[in-house]
Amino acid sequence: MKKILIFDTTLRDGSQRVGISFTVEDKVKIAKALDAFGVSYIEGGWPGTNPKDDLFFAQMKKIKLKNAKLTAFGSTRRKNSKTSEDKNLNAIIKSDVKTACIFGKSWDLHVKRVLQTTNEENIKMISESINYLKSKKLEVIFDAEHYFDGFKSNEKYALATIQSATKAGADIICLCETNGGMLPSDVEKIVKKTLAFFQKIKFGIHAHNDSGCAVANSITAIEKGCILIQGTINGIGERCGNANLCSIIPALELNKNCNCISKKNIKTLTQLSRYIDEIANLVPDDSSPYVGRNAFVHKAGMHVSAVGKKPETYEHIDPAFVGNVRKISISDLSGKTNVISKANEMAINIKNIAEKNVKKIIDIVKKKENNGYQYEGADASFFLIIKKTLGIFKPLFSLKGYRVSVEKDVNGNIISEATVKLDIKGKEEHTVAEGDGPVNALDNCLRKALIKYYPTIKDVFLRDFKVRVVDGDANTAAKVRVLIESSDSSKWWGAIGVSRNIIDASWQALSDSFEYKLIKDKKRR
Question: pTM of whole model > 0.90?
Fold first, then answer.
């Protein structure tokens, strides 16, 4: 089994994605999570370039990593200067790491136009910088920046930069596909030629995703002999992102007989993916391979039927391998198998329920979807449809009426207020609440009414609120679909409402969400 080193650069290259700004505390949390997951290297940042990275490396001196080597990033020395006086290299040494990753130019276009120096001086910058770091007893990984473009432009010079790095004592040479425009066939050819030229040298790959090929290019490089992959969790990074380790690791483990991460730890991959998104304040991509919420969701009735008999008919791996789960989607394409599978997933046993009731549920879903509803992300609302259709629904509260007002005063202040009348356990509850907007006021009002009878309502919080126009041709009189996602300390769920009035659609979704929560809590008790 081939051992592949995983070099994670989420904290450095990943943080260059537009919209991401990790705090020092964020970086420490992510470093701990990556170490627990079992990556080989964690590139923490570029010391000496900003106070945040300096503080991060200072804090990490107090933390003992179990699996990963903390790595500091930097560049070769500046042109026409002394290596021993280079602030960048000395900042790496001061960070007290045992591994340094420095980049140098491998494309003569960059040497001439960006560095504005000679090819010979660039070679010296590479060799002298690596020599200096090695003299300080550091492991050195050399990132040959723009290597693939450089190889295409001037093969002889690109190879000369690698030769300079190897002679200076670099432990691993990482071939960087910095612009992200190469195709797997380009990577295959160039990696093969490069590795044939250098014997007994360890090589890695660093790919960007500007042509959508970062994962494929990384795997291709491994197939041709590289032993290290640089990438990020969820593929975050500058421009279109970096190679996505959440796709690469399971692909290599399952299809290429490689050892990247322990089988035990790989089961936490989905959890890690969502944890990083949470810290980065990103909405998870539901369609991400392996770790996305839709990665093992089955919608078409024929697919669901087949998966029920033999999962591998429509699943390339067991979702449990990466810590994900199989889900059955409900839509107007659903058949009997979808409904039964979904009900079982929700712990409602309807296998012995009359065929006519299953058909009735399907007919209700199809009719509602024709009117704009969509149950793929609204498990709570579908749960209530099943309960009501089977005659086993006992409402825990019922609406007697609500009113919502929005007022704007002369100073531009906007005040939203909601009034709700509910029947709860035979008693009328009449509550009033304000909020940041009419929907928030309605939410606050409903909570205020329910919490006296059902204290666990305090644990529910809104994760997402989406509004979609269903029939745009009707202009301002169009129906709108409101989809909300709620969660408590242990799970999340979705609920839906559709109406020509956005407040009414929101009420439907909110009341379904709370009803679902309370029914589930009652069952657990």
Answer: no
